[in-house]
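Aim 2, interim progress: modelling of the copper (II) ion-bound target.
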Amino acid sequence: MNLSRRQFMAASAAISFTGTSIARASTTNSLKAGKTSIQLAPPDYPKTELWGFNGQATGPEIRLKQGARLTRLFENGLTETSSLHWHGIRVPNEMDGVPGVTQDVVQAGGSFLYDFTVPDAGTYWYHSHQNTVEQLARGLYGTIVVEEPDAPDIDREETIVLDDWRLTQKAEIHTDFENPHDFSHAGRLGNFVTSNNNYDLNLKVRRNERLRLRLINSSNSRIFDLALVGLDGWMMALDGMPLAAPESIEQFTLAPAQRMDLFVDVTAEIGESAYLVRVDRGEPFAQATFGVKGAASDMRREPPKALPPNPVAALAPIASARKAPLLMEGGAMGVMRSARLNGAEENMRTLAQAGMYWAFNGTVGLPEEPLIEASASETIRVPITNHTVFPHAMHLHGHHFREVRPDGGTGPLRDTILLYPDETREIAFVADNPGDWVFHCHMLAHVTAGMITWIKVS
Ligand code: C2O
Ligand code: CU
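Predicted structure of the complex, ligand included:
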């Protein structure tokens, strides 16, 4: 396969850049949000000022054992409000980090103590849950690895965070966060794709080595179509949750906010390279390159065994579960004529003037009433219909769900599901985490422009 290593925006003229790093000192148990500059673009470009934690963009990895306590003082060193959300971790409601729903927003200069135990092993991430279009586009997130009690049989692991950035010719984050086209179309897409903030990530591997790859899509709205070359891979976990049996894969999709744990065996020859390939409009790009230096052993391992399951409650029989259908409408080229905004029915023109373009069940933005009020440990079904011409990645807070297939079978546990245009897909979950939980599109321009609802669990 002929891979172009360097994918990049248009050429730039000579640049003068005067960025200053305002990186803050790191205290062990705090995460302080602030500005920091890194060499994101190739070396002939200036550094890019990002927002990160403790002077690091991406923020520091949080790594702990399943069942351990996670305590972090979030210090808001930005000049605007913020909060932290622990994406995919089944936290108590008051730790979920959603301003106006589970806590007050954290003011500039303010702080909030997050303190909870992590019930599930797997790959998660933390990110701002305020002004997300801008704060995530500037890099305000970090990774969380929750280790299984017993380490699986692998040689080593790598976390790979996939992002795309919208950069100017001076390699600055483009500040068109209010772009109406992004809000009403596919969201904010970037022009510069990275793995771990590197446009040309190279990792050394050995032949027959088994790696665990923890993939995280942290982008605002890019759907990554990925493939493995020179690597024999198994899908081991989705959105943190282990599959009942490893699934051998070559090609797969990772929507915004989704994670995937892969085990891969290096099959490329010594002196060659293996690749995590991104397929973009039919063209392959090296999303990560694995140069093969030497061999880990002469022989391949046996195929992997499943990771141990997390303690997630089993669904009650689906047939008797209550249903709360969700209809997604709106956006450019859609059929929506009007929707409720702040209690009044408004036409598309008025909605657009308010920066709103999307509705769930006829309401734009967080509705007064929840999508459903569930009693403790009730199994709830949500058939979701995407009646728009854009894909959406729906994320439920506080719970993992399973897809209910048309034949009544159920899919793996997930916290974020991708719906392509005109698809109807149904999810079911056990509502066993009390509180008010948001359920929204993770294309961040879409949630800002209306795609959010909530469920109440008593
Ligand atoms: Cu990862 Cu409500 O978000
Ligand atoms: Cu969306």
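The first helix runs from residue 132 to 137. Residues 16 and 46 are 8 Å apart (CA to CA).
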